[in-house]
Each structure stands twice: as C-alpha cells, then as structure tokens.
Amino acid sequence: MDDAKLGSVTHLVLLFLQLVSTFDAAEARQGVAVDAAHFYAIDSRVIGKYDKMTGKQTARWQAAPGSTITHLDSGVVVDGKLYCAHSNYPGFPMKSSVEIWDTGSLTHIGTHDFGVRWGSLTWVDRHNGFWWATFANYDQVIDGKRYGGKENTVLVKLNDKWQDLQTWTFPSRLLSRFGEMSNSGGSWGTDGRLYLTGHDAPEIYVVRLGESGGMLEFLETIPAPIAGQGIAWDRSTPGHLYGILRAKRQVTVLRLL
What we know:
The protein has one domain: Neuraminidase (6 Propeller). It contains two helices and 23 strands. It has helices at residues 3-6, 172-175, and strands at residues 17-24, 31-34, 38-42, 46-51, 57-62, 72-78, 81-87, 96-102, 107-115, 120-127, 130-136, 141-142, 145-146, 154-158, 164-169, 185-188, 194-197, 203-208, 214-215, 217-223, 232-233, 240-245, 250-256. The strands form six sheets. The chain has a five-stranded mixed sheet, with no helix packed on it. The protein has a four-stranded antiparallel sheet with strand order 1-23-22-21, with no helix packed on it. Strands 2-3-4-5 form a four-stranded antiparallel sheet, with no helix packed on it.
C-alpha cells in the first residue's frame, strides 16, 4: 500500500488510551521502561527506579563526570536487564550505542557500540526473537544545516549479535507528524503492531511492517496524555502503556480501550 492510500486511514481513531495513574519522577525527560514490579524513568544521564504500586523511588543511577554516556533515550526491560538507546546527540557525526543495566542493582553492566551508522538511536525493543531499533535523523538545524534530514530515519531489525537484518523507512505522512524532529519512542504491542511517538505531540502512531519490506504502513493516530518521547508497553499487565510528560517530570500509565 502506498503512502497516498494510507492517508485516508491515519485520521481514524479506532483505539483509545485512558489515563490510569500519574507518578512524579524527576528523571522522566527522555523515556520510560517497565517490568513486573518497577518502572524506570530515564533522563539523558540519569535513571530512576520506582515501585509501580506506590511510585516510591527504590534506586537511582547517574553517569559519573567524564562518562561517555551523554544522551540516553527510550528503554526496555528484557530478562532482568534494562536496555537503553543512547547517542551523542547533538554531536556530529552521529554515534549510537545500546547501554545495559542490571535491573536489580541498577548497575551499568554492558554496552553495544554501533559507531557511526544510520543516525541517532532513539529506542530499542525486543519482539518475536529479534531486536528492533529506530535510528533518527532530524530536520532540526544545527550549525547551519539539517541534522541528518528526517526522511533518513530508519527502523532496523537486528539479531542477537546486534547485526542488521532488514530496514524500513517512514512514510511522509508520518514524518510530517514529527515536525522538525523525528521518531522518539517505540514499543511493540501484543497485537503485533508497532506503536511509535514523536518528540512533542500528545499522540501515538500505530504502524505495521510493509508486506514487501522497505516502508512502514501508517495505520492510525491515537491521542494520548503524553508529550512525545519514550513509551513502553507493560508486558506483565496486558493493555497498559507507560509514557512521560517531560515538562511536568511525570510518568503516565495508560490503558488501551
């Protein structure tokens, strides 16, 4: 299906996200991750671990002075490890890595360095036995030129060794929702569809992989009480999605209806 044909369905709101609860979290500026007992509020150089029921902070990690960790983004918890997207934004050339923490102790335990490749890594997720990640490029002007050009934003499917297997670009009607920025968050739903966010807008975009590869199919826009940035489906509580309100430093818990 081409981009023009998809335009007729992107304005149909077939799903609805209801606000369940809100928690104050000083680190809620870039994204959020969640497991069965905790959520993890993520800032560029700081992560806060919080009890899901009470909202009480139980642990905190902060990058040491001089650390190479400078711009964390969205995260996901897989098998007791927190994986966070990381880049050198707004540096150039764009460099990216996945940074890894043990969720029990919130100790940093590993890195996978992508080096200079597709752009700035903004989110990573695990789905159907593979890793999935978006490397963003922006129309934002830095040092007199576009920071990569958002049309170069790409979704990458990777194996367990972080080797790329396939890539997808974003249709223009979806790119237009991002303004001068790009895709900031992403999380696979149990329905087999991918849920994405931009940088600022209070909405979530539902896509699926193009049958022949190459370009994502833009299915739907869902209004949501977030302000872009990272999101994470709670895989221990089906139908619940975590997001953030960056300006208020809050984590929001939403229920899909």
